[in-house]
Structure formats: C-alpha cells, structure tokens
Amino acid sequence: MSLKYIGMFRSFANEIGRLHCLLPWWEDATVDFMTSGGYNVASQIKKVTQKTLIIWGENDRIISNKLAVQLHCDLSDAIIRQIPDCGHLPHVERPDSVVKFIVEFVKRDQGSK
To answer: Phi, psi at residue 45, to the nearest 5°?
Structure first.
C-alpha cells in the first residue's frame, strides 16, 4: 500500500474516531463520567497474571503517561512500549509501530516456552 493511501486512512480513521465528540449529548456524558469517578479497575489489576504488552502514545493527552508507568509497575509481568509522536490511538496513528511491538512481544513469549 502506498504512503499516500496509508496517510489517507489515518486521517479518515482519526476523523471517524472523533465523531462521537460531535454528538449533542457528548459534553454532558463526559462531565457525568468524570464526576462519577470514571472507570476504576485499580483493584483488579493485581489479578492479571498473564504476560502483558502495554502500548502507549507518548503524546496521549487523554490519559496521563504517568498512568502508563503506574500500570507497568502494577502488572507483575508487563512490558511497556511507548510510541513517539503518537497520541491516544496508537493503533490508528502509528499502526506499523503497533504491529512491530505486537510481533516482538509474541515472538518473545514463544521463545520463552
């Protein structure tokens, strides 16, 4: 696939990913979510025993980079890979990097068996 089409796909995917933000109820739903405490899975993280790959965009402005580091510390067998010049949607913004990290992770896991 040419770089032109990859760029067009990324642009299209980013726009589709933002569509929910344009809905009239989005702002109220966001405020309600935040004031309710949002998702709180902290008590469940210690239950994860599988090898885990954390992929994080270094420029994520939705979820703090500090939380990625905290998640990495809280998981007993985790690897964290951060993608430069990438925001909240690494699989859309930098799919080649995401695929590379997943392949490396799977190969590493297979090599340890």
So the answer is: -60, -40
- Per-residue burial over 49-85, b = 16 or more CB atoms within 10 Å of its CB, e = otherwise: eeebbebbbeebeeeeeeebeebeeebeebbbbbbee
Nearest-angstrom CA–CA distance, 49 and 47:
6
User: Residue 76: is its pLDDT beyond 80?
Assistant: yes
Could you please report the per-residue DSSP string of 51-87? -EEEEEETT-SSS-HHHHHHHHHHSTTEEEEEETT--
Task: For residue 25, give every residue at least 6 positions away whose Cβ sits within 8 Å of its Cβ, in sequence order, or none.
Answer: none
Regarding whether 32 and 64 lie in a shared domain, the answer is no
The count of structural domains within the chain is 2
What is the rounded average pLDDT of the residues 22-38?
Answer: 76
We report the CATH number of the domain holding residue 103 as 3.40.50.1820
Q: What is the pTM of this model?
A: 0.66
Domain that holds residue 51: 40-113
Is residue 61 located within the same domain as residue 31? Answer: no
